[in-house]
Amino acid sequence: MKIIRTCAEMAALCRDVQRPLGLVPTMGALHDGHLSLTRRARADSATMAVSIFVNPTQFGAGEDFNSYPRSFERDLDLLAEQGTDLVFAPPPEEVYPDGFDTWIEPGSVTEGQEGEARPGHFKGVATVVAKLFSIVRADRAYFGQKDGQQVAVIRRMAQDLNLGVEVVTMPTIREADGLALSSRNAYLTTDQRQAAPVIYRALCAAQELWRGGEQDAGRLRAAAMAVLQAEPMLELVDYVSVVDADSMAPVERADTSGGRRVMVAVAAKLGQPRLIDNIILGDG
């Protein structure tokens, strides 16, 4: 396993590796959700690359860039166990050198949800992922469904800009009680951790109503909100949304006929930690 710190060296190595080349972009603090991506990438690829980069440009003012969990040596041990070939771990000044002034501005797919709650977030995400795609030139890149809007942004960007990479989305990995795995779960206190599965229960309430035949998005949102509001530790619900899973446009009816994918998404705060989760209606 090679650890690469510069864009030039990474690009040069990737030009000469065996194909297909799979890329798993991460911000480190790896957990089983990340490892589900590396397992799939390893199975699909002759060469597997993983990036570890806590991207400063996707964090807004007052967000947790400085305190974001970092466990680089542990991450390397895990990646070695997964059979990783290349680990790209550049410092911020390598990715954003002095004078950097070119950005990717995603369009309507960023409206609402995280795009509204975290202005500028997806500009940072899209820019760093576009740079990774350009440097690595992978055949496939792997992302988790937990960050549903992020996946939609990256898919649209890869398609619109003809970046030549297949974006593979893998299912959300959960704890036994339903809590979606996330590096930010490390922020949760014991009491908050006990309350956190309410987010998944809220999503399941909407899904069960939908499975019973209800398609009105307002009623699905109300079912999820009722579950959230019953949890006293939940301090703030940023949103409960029902959207087209590809365009992120709000829908009035959760009609999945004809292959349409509808996503129910939630973002809520338990004290300082802010957790997001979603389900695709009809999946699994």
UniProtKB/TrEMBL annotation:
It catalyses: (R)-pantoate + beta-alanine + ATP = (R)-pantothenate + AMP + diphosphate + H(+). GO terms for cellular component: cytosol. It is an enzyme of class 6 (ligase). The keyword Ligase applies. GO terms for molecular function: ATP binding; pantoate-beta-alanine ligase activity. InterPro entries: Pantoate_ligase, Pantoate_ligase_C, Rossmann-like_a/b/a_fold. Coiled coil: none annotated. Pathway: Cofactor biosynthesis; (R)-pantothenate biosynthesis; (R)-pantothenate from (R)-pantoate and beta-alanine: step 1/1. GO terms for biological process: pantothenate biosynthetic process. Pfam families: Pantoate_ligase. Keywords: ATP-binding, Ligase, Nucleotide-binding, Pantothenate biosynthesis. Signal peptide: none annotated. Its EC number is 6.3.2.1. It comes from the Eukaryota. Gene3D superfamilies: HUPs, Pantoate-beta-alanine ligase, C-terminal domain. Belongs to the pantothenate synthetase family. This is Pantoate--beta-alanine ligase. It comes from Geodia barretti (Barrett's horny sponge).
